[in-house]
Specification:
Mean pLDDT: 90
Number of strands: 0
CATH superfamily: Glycerol uptake facilitator protein
Structural class: mainly alpha
Radius of gyration: 17 Å
Low-confidence stretches: none
Length: 239
């Protein structure tokens, strides 16, 4: 049921993106906002559902396989979208995107993150699958299973590794690049998923753990917003 749900989300987002390109081609800003919003919604909604499957046996093989598979699927279906506020900083920093357009895309990403969480709460309330039964009662699932300083360093390191890899594989054939990136993300999730969740995406973190941001805003914004953004700025400064 969860796999069918995620496949349905991917198909619906693909249809929305196609209609947006056709109908709003002349309105560039609105088109860019909606395309980024739909794409980020897909990633956030699917990842929310994937988190419920983390304990499916055999552990962690099932969760890691699904992580790899859906990361490849996102890469193939969301071409041209960034879906990460940290990634949006790169073209803005390099002058390839205006500050206004960068702000528009980041706004779309956080709007999509909130919409994805609301949508998944509605889906879970229908209790279509066994993992959905207790999903709404979790509140803050507390992804930080280590000290705040260690969590900050882990998310910072993972962001640096991820962003550096993105820069290094820019010239690789797209059909191979998507698998390289998916493999890297899967490895990072395996290495640090049990400590911080290995998110390194501020919008995705907000979608997965909004209750945690409400309860401990300073702590979670430091680890899941500032750390990955700082990692991105380090890469941009050096390279």
């Amino acid at each position: 049921t969860s796999l069918l749900l995620m496949a349905g989300i991917v198909a619906a987002v693909g249809l929305c993106r196609r209609l947006t390109r056709r109908r709003l081609r002349s309105r560039q800003r609105l088109c860019a906002f909606l395309l980024e919003m739909f794409s980020t919604f897909q990633i956030c909604a699917c990842t929310n559902e994937l988190c419920l499957l983390a304990n499916v046996e055999p552990k962690p093989h099932t969760a890691l396989t699904l992580t790899y598979g859906f990361t490849v699927l996102h890469g193939l279906t969301l071409t041209g979208s960034i879906c990460n506020p940290c990634g949006t900083l790169q073209p803005v920093w390099g002058g390839g995107m205006s500050v206004k357009m960068g702000g528009l895309k980041i706004g779309a990403q956080f709007v999509a993150a909130a919409l994805a969480r609301v949508f998944m709460h509605f889906i879970w309330s229908l209790e279509m699958a066994e993992p959905h039964f207790a999903a709404l009662s979790q509140g803050c699932s507390n992804p930080m299973q280590t000290t705040e300083m260690q969590a900050f360093c882990i998310e910072l390191l993972f962001s640096v590794v991820f962003q550096l890899t993105i820069l290094r594989v820019e010239s690789v054939n797209p059909k191979y690049k998507v698998h390289l990136i998916a493999l890297l993300i899967t490895m990072l999730v395996y290495a640090g998923g049990n400590l911080t969740g290995a998110i390194f995406n501020p919008a995705l973190a907000f979608s997965l753990h909004p209750s945690c941001f409400y309860d401990k805003f300073l702590s979670y914004s430091l680890v899941y917003w500032i750390a990955p953004s700082l990692g991105k700025f380090l890469i941009l400064s050096v390279f």
